[in-house]
Design the sequence.
C-alpha cells in the first residue's frame, strides 16, 4: 500500500501546471547563471604545465586539439590509487558519449588525473571509454586548480576546496564530497580505489573550462563538489523518478561491477 498522496487526474493536472511554472522559472534562472558563467573575467595562464597523453608529452594548449575551448574533468585518480574513483567513473560514463558532439561544436572535453599515464590507460581500457585522458603526474596543475593536496596540507588544515578552507583532516563521512548521503561513502569509495580515506580525499573532483585565443590559454571557470551535480547524467533522470535520488549509503558501482554483487 503506497503512503504517497494520491488523487484524480484532474487534481494531478492542476498540481502539474503549478509545478510547471516553477520549472520554467528554474530554467530561466539556469539560463541566467549560464550567462553569468560566460561573463566571468578570463585569467591568462602563463605557467607551462606539462602532461602525458596517448600521443606523448603535451602542453595545456595541446590538450585543446586544435579547438578554441577546453573542458577538463578533474578525475580523482591519484598516484597511489589502484583504480579510479567510482563516483568519478559514473560521471565519466555519462560524458564519454558527449565528446564527439562537443568536438563538433569547437569544444574538447578531456579528463586529467595525477596517476601515471599507464594506470590511466589500463583503467580506460577496462571501462571501455574513448575520451582523451591526460596524466598531470609531476605537474603543479592539480594543486594550482585546487583538486589535489599534500599530506601536510591535509594534516595542518591547508586544504582550500570549493572556495573555502577546510579544517585539519579528521574522520568525516562526506566532508567536501559531492554527495550528502547516509553511511560512509568516503570509506567505501576509498576501499574501491584500494586506498584509505585520508589518501583518497587528498584528491577531489571538479571541472575547469579554458579558452584558447591568439595562442594564449585562459582559465574561464571552475566548479567543485555539488557544482558537479549537473554533470551526473543519471541524477538528471533520478530527479524525475517517483522516489528521486533515494540515496541510502553507497549505491553506485563501476559499470563493470554490477553483476559481481
Sequence:
Amino acid at each position: 500500500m503506497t503512503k504517497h498522496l494520491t488523487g484524480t487526474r484532474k487534481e494531478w493536472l492542476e498540481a502539474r501546471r503549478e509545478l510547471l511554472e516553477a520549472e520554467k522559472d528554474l530554467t530561466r534562472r539556469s539560463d541566467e547563471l549560464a550567462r553569468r558563467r560566460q561573463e566571468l573575467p578570463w585569467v591568462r595562464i602563463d605557467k607551462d604545465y606539462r602532461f602525458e597523453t596517448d600521443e606523448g608529452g603535451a602542453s595545456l594548449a595541446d590538450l585543446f586539439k586544435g579547438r578554441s575551448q577546453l573542458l577538463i574533468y578533474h578525475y580523482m585518480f591519484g598516484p597511489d590509487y589502484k583504480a579510479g574513483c567510482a563516483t568519478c567513473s559514473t560521471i565519466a560514463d555519462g560524458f564519454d558519449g558527449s565528446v564527439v558532439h562537443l568536438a563538433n561544436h569547437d569544444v574538447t572535453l578531456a579528463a586529467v588525473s595525477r596517476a601515471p599515464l599507464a594506470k590511466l590507460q589500463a583503467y580506460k581500457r577496462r571501462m571501455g571509454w574513448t575520451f582523451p585522458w591526460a596524466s598531470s603526474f609531476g605537474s603543479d596543475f592539480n594543486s594550482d586548480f585546487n583538486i589535489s593536496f599534500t599530506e601536510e596540507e591535509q594534516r595542518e588544515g591547508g586544504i582550500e576546496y570549493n572556495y573555502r578552507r577546510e579544517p585539519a583532516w579528521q574522520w568525516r563521512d562526506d566532508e567536501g564530497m559531492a554527495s550528502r548521503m547516509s553511511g560512509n561513502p568516503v570509506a567505501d569509495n576509498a576501499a574501491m580505489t584500494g586506498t584509505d580515506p585520508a589518501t583518497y580525499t587528498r584528491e577531489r573532483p571538479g571541472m575547469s573550462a579554458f579558452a584558447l585565443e591568439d595562442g594564449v590559454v585562459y582559465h574561464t571557470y571552475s566548479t567543485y563538489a555539488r557544482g558537479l551535480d549537473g554533470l551526473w547524467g543519471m541524477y538528471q533522470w533520478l530527479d524525475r523518478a517517483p522516489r528521486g535520488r533515494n540515496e541510502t549509503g553507497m549505491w553506485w558501482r563501476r559499470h563493470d561491477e554490477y553483476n559481481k554483487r
Q: What stands out?
A: The radius of gyration is 20 Å. The first strand starts at residue 43 and ends at 44.
